[in-house]
Amino acid sequence: DQQVKQNSPSLSVQEGRISILNCDYTNSMFDYFLWYKKYPAEGPTFLISISSIKDKNEDGRFTVFLNKSAKHLSLHIVPSQPGDSAVYFCAASAGFSNDYKLSFGAGTTVTVRA
Amino acid sequence: GAVVSQHPSRVICKSGTSVKIECRSLDFQATTMFWYRQFPKQSLMLMATSNEGSKATYEQGVEKDKFLINHASLTLSTLTVTSAHPEDSSFYICSARFYNEQFFGPGTRLTVL
Questions:
Q1: What confidence score (pLDDT) does residue B1 get?
Q2: For B107, which residue in chain A has the nearest alpha carbon?
Q3: I need a labelling partner for A58 at 20 to 30 A (CA). Which of A7, A49, A72, A90 fits?
């Protein structure tokens, strides 16, 4: 049962433009959400996170938006750079109540065109 | 940021042998470590949760006798794939929890011939 869904397997964007990655979840117990970036044959690298008490968190070129009522979050990358080409995973946690386990989406492969 | 290492990064073994993978948190203590498995072009699937000083908790469908996990200290967890078979070939990734976040190791590519 996929509790975290990334419905777009791939995204192609021109350098300098905005990349928008979407993620939906079904478990209302999730209270912490994270985005990870992953290159092939490497472990995921933490990008940005957001707690359920917030609706926006910004860190440099990366902004995560959370819409709790819609159980939806998105990651905005602006401006997109060639080095951003990677697979991006959305993850969610129910915190202490579930041993801080992370549920991952299937990932979105981002390709930034020069 | 927090650093997690894994060793080895790549291992090739014969069918029937056992392989041990180490996961270390280098600059922080992790009471909880997690082991994941990733198939090509798929998401990370949680295999087990490893708490220091206690038995690991395995996810449904993961054979605990095949995937032995030991969390002997606050900075080291090991995953042993026992009697490995070709279907165990995969990318294994560990993570260490620090407060609300998990920091991931670089992964281990296991190929069973």
A1: 66
A2: A43
A3: A7
